[in-house]
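> forwarded from #structure-qc
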């Protein structure tokens, strides 16, 4: 079967766009070919900085003939229906239709459609120009004299030639002929612009690849990556060094060259006083070069770097390496200036004394000075949420409160929170925003801070995604939690919550970060207690300053009826206590409570996604989560225990019996059948009632004790003793007894079963 070769050659395509563009080209053309009635065996895309290439194997030479009947309306149908049928069938008049008869439905129109197949070359010639014109580049341009005309061709960079050949391996392929904006397809391409600029005539893919290789073009991007990586490793090793590998940089560099030539440059050793991260980022960002380190050393760099040229220079690349070295030295000189400046005193120290006193800062220390400046300058965090200094004030209070819960020293957590944002005003972070946190950690350790404080400054932004590592140092965990909770609470307070398509403040990521910090570190934290304090602080701030955003958001939540007064009072008693309740103004707790509950529901949604990604059953998650479930680790452990228990025979039998009890009870409650408030043993008529009552008392007590110790497997094991008495009860007892008192008592017994098992989960929500 024939093969298709297509190459679109242009000026330089940005490296970040190449891989996706090649994939888009493959999908657009193969989808269109299939839609046109052709099939193919395989398709693969290739790309270099100057070309996108498609190799489609086993493409059918012709589309099939189409013969089909399209049934239309009755011959007596209104004109509107007839016209719709003509449009659908592609007929110009009803005279072109046939009339068929049905004994029951009468006469109706039928269109007999016959379309002869088309040659693949014709189909390709029609499709490719349209794909080129409508290609989804993120950015594109027009060029040349034709660019002044309306509808002129747009491409990422000026399109220079189109190669398109088609044919079987055993025959001479043909050129698929078409033209777009003066560029006519052909069988000509060009190699490396410096080493082999002459035209190359191509027949099919295999000789296309070999001729390009001879013309100093490596077509396969993955092979270019392999060449660069292998040569870089070998060159580093030959000089007694190890390459610091960087997959992202390797991907980018492979998209900058068609003929990779790996060289080594160097800079003065004096620059090595700069932190390794700054050196690496300077060389990576500005020169797209790899750094190296002494063999066997992980925490230091050498003064040699690896660059990738696109030509084989006559001098072996000496001038290229020298030129790159000059640029690297200039960039590192700037970085050294930033680094040195950050170690010195700020010129406006006297103006920073008030801020220093507020946060307990030592103005003899460079990082403390930077934090004082951050507060003094009133750097805005968000127009409705105040300054960075105000935010740091909130985060330090919350971090100190969370510290004992996660096993951290409160004083260290407070100190880390105070310094966590200080590096935002440093020269290095101003130049390299990617290093915020990293530089703060280094400066903290240089001025003698505790190692945990330095780690927390660097790690409090983590995790920043589902695959990012989580902090494990307790101080880091406390500050990271406080930072993310403050962000979530603040944006909830001003009603800037994520929507279905938009999340500009990455609040979903922040919530997932809180979940991972708690669950993967095994931390039992009451989110409601943790959120209530900053919510009330935000409320009081807005009230004092006469600002309305929080109040308006709270009013909207109140109208939505997210919680009842009973719920609020219940949870206040359990979480906040009498002293907490007395601290709130009469109208404040209702608003704060509703806001907290709404944010907690958001955490529940993200937790469900997290657990489903871990393989948990959705019905088990729903069975465990209630609107007030605010200990995320406890939810996860309940789900795990429930999943394991239901996999046993006892679990399956208990589930069946419990669901039967719950269903009967729910049905009677719906009918408003009387249910006794308590179970009266005197009304028992059967031994099975007595046995079940005793088993429920025992199971409820033992399960409750196990839950107090967070032993959910033990709680389920205690409940499993209900299996036999529940089965026996339903086998020998009629719940809906004629005696109303007996019936109400038996329903109360079923309610006790529901309450006992409900300590762990709502079994009625579990499938099966």
């Amino acid at each position: 079967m024939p093969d298709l070769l297509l190459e679109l050659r242009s000026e330089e395509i940005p490296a970040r766009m190449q891989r996706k563009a090649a994939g888009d080209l493959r999908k657009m053309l193969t989808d269109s070919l299939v839609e046109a009635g052709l099939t193919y065996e395989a398709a693969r895309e290739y790309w270099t900085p100057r070309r996108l290439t498609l190799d489609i194997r086993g493409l059918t030479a012709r589309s099939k003939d189409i013969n089909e009947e399209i049934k239309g309306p009755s011959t007596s149908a209104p004109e509107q229906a007839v016209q719709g049928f003509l449009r659908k069938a592609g007929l110009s008049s009803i005279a072109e239709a046939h009339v068929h008869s049905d004994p029951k439905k009468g006469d109706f129109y039928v269109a007999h459609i016959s379309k002869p197949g088309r040659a693949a070359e014709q189909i390709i010639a029609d499709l490719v120009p349209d794909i080129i014109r409508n290609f989804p580049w993120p950015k594109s341009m027009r060029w040349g004299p034709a660019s002044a005309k309306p509808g002129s061709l747009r491409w990422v960079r000026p399109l220079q030639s189109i190669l398109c050949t088609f044919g079987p391996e055993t025959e001479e392929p043909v050129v698929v002929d078409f033209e777009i904006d003066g560029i006519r397809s052909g069988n000509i391409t060009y190699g490396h612009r410096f080493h082999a600029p002459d035209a190359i005539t191509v027949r099919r893919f295999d000789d296309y690849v070999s001729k390009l290789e001879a013309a100093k073009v490596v077509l396969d991007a993955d092979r270019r990556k392999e060449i660069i990586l292998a040569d870089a490793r070998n060159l580093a090793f030959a000089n007694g060094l190890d390459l610091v590998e960087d997959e992202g940089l390797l991907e980018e560099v492979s998209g900058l060259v068609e003929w990779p030539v790996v060289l080594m440059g160097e800079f003065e050793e004096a620059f090595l006083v700069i932190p390794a991260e700054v050196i690496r980022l300077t060389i990576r960002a500005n020169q797209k070069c790899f750094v190296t380190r002494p063999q066997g050393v992980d925490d230091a760099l050498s003064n040699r770097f690896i660059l990738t040229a696109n030509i084989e220079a006559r001098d072996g690349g000496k001038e290229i390496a020298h030129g790159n070295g000059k640029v690297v030295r200039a960039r590192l000189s700037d970085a050294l200036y930033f680094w040195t400046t950050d170690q010195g005193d700020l010129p406006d120290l006297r103006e920073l004394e008030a801020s220093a006193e507020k946060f307990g800062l030592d103005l003899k220390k460079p990082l403390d000075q930077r934090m004082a400046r951050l507060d003094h300058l009133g750097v805005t965090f968000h127009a409705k949420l105040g300054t960075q200094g105000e935010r740091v004030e909130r985060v330090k209070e919350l971090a100190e409160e969370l510290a004992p819960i996660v096993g951290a020293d409160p004083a260290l957590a407070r100190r880390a929170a105070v310094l966590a944002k200080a590096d935002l005003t440093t020269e290095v972070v101003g130049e390299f925003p990617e290093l915020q946190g990293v530089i703060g950690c280094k400066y903290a350790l240089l001025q003698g801070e505790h190692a945990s404080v330095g780690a927390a400054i660097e790690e409090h932004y983590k995790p920043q995604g589902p695959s990012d590592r989580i902090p494990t140092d307790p101080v880091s965990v406390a500050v990271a939690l406080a930072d993310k909770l403050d962000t979530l609470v603040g944006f909830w307070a001003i009603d800037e919550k994520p929507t279905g398509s938009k999340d500009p403040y990455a609040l979903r990521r922040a919530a997932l970060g809180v979940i991972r910090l708690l669950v993967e570190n095994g931390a039992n934290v009451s989110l409601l207690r943790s959120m209530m304090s900053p919510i009330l602080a935000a409320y009081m701030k807005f009230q004092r300053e006469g600002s309305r955003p929080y109040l308006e958001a709270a009013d909207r939540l109140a109208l939505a009826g997210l919680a009842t007064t009973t719920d609020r009072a219940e949870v206040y008693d359990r979480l906040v206590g009498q002293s907490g309740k007395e601290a709130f103004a009469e109208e404040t707790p209702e608003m704060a409570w509703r806001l907290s509950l709404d944010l907690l529901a958001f955490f529940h949604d993200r937790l469900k996604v997290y657990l489903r990604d871990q393989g948990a059953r959705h019905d088990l998650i729903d069975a465990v989560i209630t609107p007030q479930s605010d200990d995320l680790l406890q939810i996860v452990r309940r789900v795990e225990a429930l999943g394991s228990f239901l996999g046993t025979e006892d679990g399956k039998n208990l589930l069946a019996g419990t669901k039967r009890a719950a269903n009967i009870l729910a049905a009677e409650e719906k009918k408003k059948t009387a249910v006794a408030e308590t179970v009266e043993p005197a009304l028992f008529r059967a031994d099975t009632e007595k046995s079940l009552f005793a088993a429920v008392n025992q199971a409820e007590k033992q399960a409750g004790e196990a839950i107090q110790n967070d032993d959910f497997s033990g709680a389920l094991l205690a409940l499993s003793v209900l299996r036999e008495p529940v089965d026996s009860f339903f086998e020998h007892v009629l719940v809906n007894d004629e005696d109303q008192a007996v019936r109400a008592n038996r329903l109360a017994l079923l309610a006790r079963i529901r309450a006992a098992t409900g300590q762990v989960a709502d079994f009625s929500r579990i499938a099966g």
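QC bot note: The CA atoms of residues 240 and 295 lie 6 Å apart. The mean pLDDT is 88.
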